[in-house]
Amino acid sequence: MQYKVTLTPPKPVLTVTVAVAPDSAQKFSAKVTALDLTKADLQPDGNPIDKALAAAAKPLVQALVDKVPPIIVDAVKDKSVSFDLDQPIGYKVTAGDVPITLTATNLVLGTHEGHLLVTGGIEVAP
């Protein structure tokens, strides 16, 4: 049996909140705050025999599939992950023969016109 699956909404949206520890440019966390997936609808597909068999079994299969979206949403919603970068965000430059390290400090995440915005300071060290 073959089915064509249509999701509602057609392109489910996953919303994630990302944060950075206020005292570090290395410690980040991400948390799933929402997943917009409400339904998966089945339509029999394939050759005529497959379609006939799939149509006969559709009520049972659809009843099972109807249970999947809430399970997926519950499995990911409010899940968090934290991670540390190997080194702080920044880079090294050389001025003459002197290496200079620039490191991001006091990072704050936000948005600007729908884009991720990161603000903070820069620490300069030889």
The helix/strand class is: alpha+beta
Number of β-strand runs: 8
Instruction: Please indicate the percent range of residues in DSSP E strands (runs of 2 or more).
Output: over 45%
**What does the largest sheet look like?**
3 strands, antiparallel
Series of secondary-structure elements, N-terminal to C-terminal: EEEEHHEEEE
Distance between the termini: 67 Å
- pLDDT under 50 segments (min length 5)? none
- Radius of gyration, Cα only, in angstroms? 24 Å
Mean model confidence by pLDDT: 89
Backbone shape = elongated
Helix percentage: 10-25%
How many domains, as an integer? 2
Side-by-side strand order of the widest sheet: 2-3-5
Q: How many DSSP H or I helices?
A: 2
Organism: Saccharothrix xinjiangensis
Protein name: Lipoprotein
